[in-house]
């Protein structure tokens, strides 16, 4: 893997969206579910009101935690955390067709969580966006 890409157009041109087959759910962690949720979480975020975890939807179902299911699309470009434009381009393109997205930036890649029932449509749209910038 090359070094981080910082230029916005270059990040979009190289994003290579990849769809994860697992469905995920954003859940609020409580003391009684913390061991199971935090052990399976691919991401967490602490807010004043509590801790959110992103966990497999099947686990949330087992614990009786309802909520919408999301698909994760990983943007395979090694995006620089100080790069500008990738998040705006992705969120803007999805917003134009009414697809909600939750962006999570990690050290190497950005991850886009979209409603599970619109995942294929979202990937196709992001591939079109990538082709325009290539």
What would your notes on this structure say?
It is a single chain. A hairpin with a 2-residue loop joins β2 and β3 (50-56). The chain has a single domain, classed as VC0802-like (2-Layer Sandwich). The mean pLDDT is 96. The chain has five helices and six strands. It is an alpha+beta fold and 134 residues long. The chain has a six-stranded antiparallel beta sheet.
Would you spell out the secondary-structure blueprint of this structure?
Elements: H1 8-13, E1 17-28, H2 34-40, E2 43-47, E3 50-56, H3 57-62, E4 70-75, H4 86-96, E5 102-105, E6 110-115, H5 119-133
Antiparallel strand pairs: 1-3, 1-4, 2-3, 4-6, 5-6
Give a quick precis of the structure.
With 134 residues, this protein is an alpha+beta fold. 34% of the residues lie in helices and 30% in strands.
Report the CATH superfamily. VC0802-like
Briefly note the structural class of the backbone.
alpha+beta
CATH architecture: 2-Layer Sandwich
The first-level CATH class name: Alpha Beta
Find the CATH topology.
VC0802-like
* H-E string: HEHEEHEHEEH
**Proportion of helical residues:** 25-40%
Number of helices: 5
Strand content: 25-35%
Main beta sheet:
6 strands, antiparallel
Average pLDDT confidence is 96
Rg (CA only): 16 Å
For the largest beta sheet, what order do the strands appear in spatially? 2-3-1-4-6-5
Rough shape?
globular
Q: Which stretches of 5+ consecutive residues score pLDDT under 50?
A: none
- How far is it from the N-terminal to the C-terminal residue, by CA? 19 Å
Could you give the count of β-strands? 6
> How many independent structural domains?
1
């Amino acid at each position: 893997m090359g070094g981080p890409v910082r230029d916005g157009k270059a990040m979009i041109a190289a994003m290579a969206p990849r769809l994860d087959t697992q469905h995920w759910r954003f859940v609020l962690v409580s003391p009684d579910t913390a061991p199971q949720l935090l052990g399976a979480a691919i991401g967490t975020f602490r807010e004043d009101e509590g801790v959110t975890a992103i966990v497999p939807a099947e686990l949330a179902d087992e614990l009786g935690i309802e909520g919408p299911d999301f698909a994760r699309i990983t943007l395979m470009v090694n995006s620089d955390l100080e790069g500008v434009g990738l998040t705006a381009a992705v969120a803007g393109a999805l917003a134009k067709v009414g697809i909600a997205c939750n962006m999570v930036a990690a050290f190497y890649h950005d991850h886009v969580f979209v409603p599970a029932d619109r995942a294929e449509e979202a990937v196709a749209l992001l591939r079109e966006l990538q082709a325009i910038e290539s």
